Predict the structure.
Amino acid sequence: MAALSAGGGDGEARLLPPRSLAEPTLHTVEMHTGGEPLRVVPRLEAMEEAAAAGLSLLELRRHMAATQDHVRRALMHEPRGHGGMYGAVVLRGGAAADGADLAVLFLHGSGYSAMCGHAVLALGRFALDYGLVAAPQRPETAVRLRCPCGPVTAFVPWDGRRSGNPVRFHSVPAFAAATDVAIDVPGHGRVLVDISYGGTFYAFLSAEQLGLNVCSSKTRELVSAASAVTEAVKEQFKLHHPESEDLAFLYGTILTDGKDAFSEEPTSNICVFADEQVDRSPTGSGVTARIALQYHKGLIQLNQSRTFRSSTTGSLFTGKAVKEASFGDYKAVVVEVSGEAFYTGTAAFTVEEEDPLKYGFSFK
């Protein structure tokens, strides 16, 4: 990457910035999948050191939250980021053990996720183009990732020179945790929600139950309603994960158009996750969870593809259940999700010691 410089009075260039830095320069690769941004951090030395000490990926997730959260805030929040920013810290070496090409920690405006499908689709391309896969194969290369929720495999077009689209991935076992759960939502009354897992847990319901239309209602109204559902479910329903209680949390609510039965026509949804953050894409882990839910209800069959449309950008993902699996006491499925990821640039971010807002700020 070319260094920024400014001419001095003597005609010699000097590197910018000229002030003292609180942190080393943070280099990133900028991408998006279906409109949802991904700020990739190819290397974070502090986390590489923690990984070398033998911490598990879930332990590394907690370690970053405890010791490196200022990095997340600096990159996700304003002025370097924005309210919808999403990120990924890439971990290689020992952290990517058990045959994986890389491990990853997912970042967002208020914390850390366990799984992110749009990021996996983008990271599949990133891994190939930045040489993280030892022997890429044409016409498609399998890229093995370790995510906090477990191992995920992306399948990426490769022409011998660069990656391409569409990218697809196979999920961890996904399952319906509960269906038709009655939840009292302040301001909306009693609604029925389904709760499903696609690497992280989501609540699902049609926007119509809340007096809204997922495609035509104002985004602010959809966000407020979905957030109210999320908080109500957290208070009224106890989640359980078969392997780790670290993963037993509700990530968000996905409002749908109610078109769950199989159709050749796309079905639309909006995902509101974390602290009222809106996914611009159809949501990869959300599509995974929704496919698992539809399969559980007998609405789709194995290898029957559905198309999912983001009601925010109109971008499309496809999804299908490719095989049955067991996960603890749950009957689960492995889901294939497909979408398109693109590069938007690279960046070098600095943090000056004197800056009172050096680690970012956020407001609504």
User: Anything to note?
Assistant: Residues 219-236 form the longest helix (18 residues). The chain is about 20% helix and 35% strand.
